[in-house]
Amino acid sequence: MNRVIRVSALALALVAVFAAAVLFTVQTLSRGDAAPAVSELTEEAAVLKEGSRGDDVKTVQTKLKRWGYYSGNVDGIYGPATKKAVVAFQKKNGLTQDGIVGKATFEALGMMTQASQAGGGSSSSGYTNSDTYLLARCIYAEARGEIYTGQVAVGAVVLNRVKSSQFPNTIAGVIYQKNAFTAVNDGQINLTPNQTAINAAKDAMNGWDPTYGCLYYYNPVTATSSWIFSRETVVTIGKHVFAI
């Protein structure tokens, strides 16, 4: 009889210990004690700095090398040379010169962080509705008489400039750069774009680039700048020549 009582008591004690453990776990999760670890991982994934490694570092190195900031190997290792190149890029683009690729520098490089991908009010490409509408206005003003591919191509040139270290790093900055677009100078930028232009803007923002990376375009019949004719032609679409 005593043995049965002792076994029952032991069983009850084990149940009590298990229940206490479950309760502690639930309380811990409900207080959010585990949240900082997840947050820290997300934050870490959104920042590249000296000591970082991986494909994102290679992308940064490739871009900076193409634009003349970086002369080292594209090895995916964020060393002193990569940091120095990032600082130079940040200085050129009016960013905090800390040598760290955070959200603002990611965007200036034409890359996206996890946070910007998850943020609200933007398209899947990371641009806002205002960006889309302004780009559509530019496309409509500059190329509404062109075939659809030609309209997308004009949008792509704007976006290529945003990503280039040679130009401002926002759509508005590129479009309103002094004397960059005839449509801004003559006021046609203020025309209301049609749905075709809006669709072309969205296609360009989603990655369609019929120009293969061009930064310039012109109509050879109406162009008056001798400088533009010196640019290397990549492709002709409709009445526009696209060049680098």
How would you explain this protein's 3D organization?
There is one protein chain. The protein is mostly helical and 244 residues long. It folds into 3 domains: 2-33; 44-118, PGBD-like superfamily/PGBD (Muramoyl-pentapeptide Carboxypeptidase, domain 1); 129-243, Orthogonal Bundle (Arc Repressor Mutant, subunit A). Helices cover 52% and strands 5% of the residues. The chain contains 11 helices and 3 strands; from the N terminus they run αααααααααααβββ. The chain has helices at residues 2-31, 35-45, 55-66, 80-92, 103-108, 114-118, 129-143, 148-163, 171-175, 182-185, 195-205; strands at 216-218, 233-237, 240-243. It has a 3-stranded antiparallel sheet, with helices on one face. β2 and β3 form a beta hairpin. α7 (129-143) packs across α8 (148-163), α7 (129-143) crosses α11 (195-205) and α8 (148-163) packs across α11 (195-205). Residues 22-45 and 114-124 have low confidence and may be disordered.
Structure, briefly:
The chain is mainly alpha-helical and 244 residues long. It contains eleven helices and three strands, in the order H-H-H-H-H-H-H-H-H-H-H-E-E-E.
